[in-house]
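User: Sorry, what's this?
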Amino acid sequence: MIEAIKSLDTRLFLWLNSLHQPWLDQPMYLMTTEKFWIPAYLLMLWMVYKAHGWRIMLWSILGVAVVITLGDRISVELFKNVFQRYRPPHNLDIGHLVHTVNDYRGGQFGFVSSHATNSLAIATFIYLLLRRAFAKWAWWVFAWAGLFTYTRIYLGVHYPADVVCGGLLGVAIGAGVYWGFKRWVPGVELGPHTKS
């Protein structure tokens, strides 16, 4: 059963990775870096400020730091180092078929994707902070996370299962940190700070 899933995952990866376009290679390479998304992070902070005010916004920076720390450590220590699944470019069976950009191949092991874990953890945490004040717009954080994680498949460094499982782990981490956040930081559930 596991081998059948891995085989399906590999075939899906090779198909998605084969859809690359020369004009899209460099934009995707840029979009996989955290620095590229600084404007998106600043927009998230501004939205938290508008929803809750300065105090909650400053606390949310600590919340995001906790989310990233947990995402990094759990995705590496409990998944990558345990499962030791080779990334596609390091897989001797398919490595020659993988389209990479700028010879970027990532580390040796890829299950689960830390990019997916961290981005979905941040998106979940921020969405839960914004969902009352920005009911129609808060969803964009998931669109950001989806594009950010898809770059990993496009660049050939993760299988779809790496990204999906990493994303599910990230959602759990983001929701867990939010639960602790609203428990320890008063005022989070009040919605927009103008109503507090």
In short: The helical segments are 2-17, 22-31, 38-52, 54-83, 114-130, 140-154, 160-184.
